[in-house]
Design a protein that fits this description.
alpha/beta
Length: 280
């Protein structure tokens, strides 16, 4: 990674995951700084991430960081950015936002303008280092900075770069919200398995481990989903009966509608963040 010091504004779970991932990857603790307003959280961070600089002073973290990761709730990001505008303009860091919703132009404006801003949508499995993130950088972001941002997020899983910012809303629908779809499927498989006579623990283990194995094959086999399905689906067999039933009930349309609703909601939240930032 080309950037020297990475600073985080906000010390929540995603900050802990990314900072912890950087440490696990061999990044020096003294090159990581975290600003967190709650004293108990600061103590906890210092215990969990020994050697990392932890402070209540957002501006102090920005002043020493070549990259600043905004890891705060979308509802407060405008106010946080405006408070940091002078410090950011003075040090001109790369800024990475992992806040869901606020758009790059708004973040850049709140920070005073002409700042390299990368917007990222990570997902919940990043907390275990098993996430995936979608990423887009503005015109002020150099290829070296985009590469550095990719390296930082890669500490918690693969990174997919998208060609325009609007596609971050699609990333949100597919992978940002995506874990919940799989949890729902696992829950449905387990509960139906229980209805079919399995005990609760066995049904949940069968469902969860099946999801894990299938997703690993989907990621690593190099085969298409149609090819993998065909390997399980024998003509006239049990899998064919189940999949035919799902197709008859319009399962593809159901998922299409669900993801479109998630994408549209992400767009609306970005619009609301834009308006809220103007009103403050």
């Amino acid at each position: 990674m080309d950037l020297d010091t990475v600073g985080f504004i906000g010390g929540g779970n995603m900050t802990r995951a990314i900072a912890g991932g950087l440490l696990d990857d061999g990044y020096a603790a003294e090159k990581i700084a975290i600003a967190e307003p709650v004293e108990a959280q600061r103590v906890s961070l210092q215990e969990a991430l020994p050697g990392v600089f932890v402070s209540s002073d957002n501006a102090a973290v920005v002043a020493q960081s070549e990259c600043v990761v905004l890891s705060v709730k979308p509802q407060i990001i405008a106010a946080v950015c405006r408070d940091l505008a002078d410090a950011v303009q003075a040090s001109n860091p790369l800024v990475i936002s992992i806040a869901a919703g606020p758009r790059i132009d708004d973040i850049d404006s709140w920070l005073g303008g002409n700042i390299a801003v990368v917007r990222v949508m990570p997902n919940q499995p990043a907390l275990l280092g098993k996430g995936i993130s979608g990423m887009f950088g503005n015109r002020a972001t150099s290829s070296q900075q985009l590469s550095a941002a990719t390296d930082i997020l890669a500490a918690v899983g693969p990174v997919v770069n998208v060609s325009n910012e609007a596609l971050i809303d699609a990333v949100t629908a597919v992978s940002g919200s995506g874990p919940a779809y799989f949890y729902l499927l696992i829950d449905m498989l387990a509960k139906t398995g229980k209805q079919l006579g399995l005990d609760e623990d066995a049904a949940l283990k069968l469902a969860a481990e099946t999801a894990f194995g299938a997703s690993t094959l989907a990621r690593d086999s190099g085969e298409s989903m149609d090819e993998l399905i065909a390997r399980v689906r024998s003509p006239g067999g049990t899998t064919a009966a189940a999949l035919d039933s799902l197709e008859d009930q319009g399962v593809r349309d159901i998922f299409n509608n669900a993801l479109t609703a998630a994408r549209d909601r992400a767009t609306k939240l970005a619009d609301q963040a834009h308006q809220s930032g103007k009103d403050e």
